[in-house]
Every structure is written in structure tokens, then in C-alpha cells.
Amino acid sequence: MGEEIAVGDQIEWYSDIDGRPVEPDDPEARTYTGIVDSVHRHRDDSRVVAYLVRCRGGVSGTYLSTVLPEHRPSVVDSGRQQDGSNE
Question: Which pLDDT value is given to residue 1?
Fold first, then answer.
């Protein structure tokens, strides 16, 4: 995961139905996408520990999901403007 994920980015990740990280080719894998609402970092070394992601569901409307680095999220569409700032 060489890319920096930021607030406003649309990301994609894979997990099983219970939310556990899985490989993309795992038969239990489901693809999820959402917009990053916040990035949470470890206080001591500033590594990312979680992303809070806004997702859309069918009948459930909008919900928040916690995505961990173990989910290996990737940026689908950057929410940043050309100059690198957020909207």
C-alpha cells in the first residue's frame, strides 16, 4: 500500500461478511467502497491505525465502517484537488 490515503478519497477494500480482512481471490471476499471521513493515527509513531469510511447500502442508506490497514485499502478516486488539498 504505497499510496497515501486521505480524507475525501474513495477507497476499495476486501473483507468477509463479518468484516475480517481477506485476500481478493478468497471465495468469501466481498468488495466494499466508500469515502474516507477520517484517518486515525497512532499517537507515538503516527502510523495509520484505522480509517472511518462513509459507505452506502441498499436499504440501510449511509453507514460508517471502520477499515483497518490489514484490509489493504486502495484509492479508487482521489477526493483531493490538483494542488493536493481537500475540497
Answer: 44
